[in-house]
Amino acid sequence: MELTIINEQEVLGKHFTVYGTADEPLFVAKDVAEWIEYDVSSVNKMLDKIDEDEKLVGTLFRSGQNREVWFLTENGLYEVLMQSRKPLAKEFKKKVKEILKSIRKHGLYAIDDLLENPDMAIAALQKLKEERQLRLQAQEEVAQKNQIIQELQPKATYYDLVLQNKSLVPISVIAKDYGMSATKLNKILHELKVQYKQGSTWLLYQKYAGKGYTQSKTHTIDADYSKMHTYWTQKGRLFLYDLLKNKKGILPLIEQKDVA
After folding, report:
1. Which helix (H) or strand (E) holds 128?
2. Are 100 and 167 contained in the same domain?
3. Which residue range or ranges hold the Bro-N domain (predicted)?
4. Which of 33, 51, 75, 217 is the right S-S partner for 38, CB 3.0 to 4.6 Å?
5. Which of 84, 95, 97 lies closest to 50, judged by CA?
6. What's the whole-model pTM score?
């Protein structure tokens, strides 16, 4: 999933960028870590403490190429800020809410200077338009190059890609294979009687629990609180592939392209 920028500015001395839409804003996890002076080399540790539904992998155009990075939803961002004990996190949360409220009301973050000076507002919007046009042009060029590269490479099946990977994966990674959110895929698996939700954690029904499809990990947040997350094995990933294909007619993106 490729995301667009809806707001970009400086907040508390940090470069602050909002992606997605006004209703469903997204924030780069690594950026969030930098905002609150969290160790950026431990971003995965920070992500482990966040609910699966509140994080996802998306495509971001940076340094002249498309990169896959972790994003946090608005709730995921607030969850990180609440877990941080730094005063800076509290200030950021207040500022983020103010910015998002303005974006939803005006379509952009309208500071007082812009609201009181129409010429300044027009100039700011023109600059934003030009920056987005340049970004889109660069993205299009990279996309064209990537398409040529992909056309010259032999086609890989979803099975091939899964079997190359031996690690455990969160549901958000599998959902990305199908071009959907973790929330939507979790809902589908619940409808298919594969899993049920206990608290904030998805668990397999007994019929599937002992088949080696998932593994659970408990992450300690502080002395009084820990959270369990469910990860899928590659065996479980292939099980979901067969299930979604046969029960729902849903194919991963790589095979949807082949069918098309």
Report:
1. helix 118-152
2. no
3. 9-107
4. 33
5. 84
6. 0.47
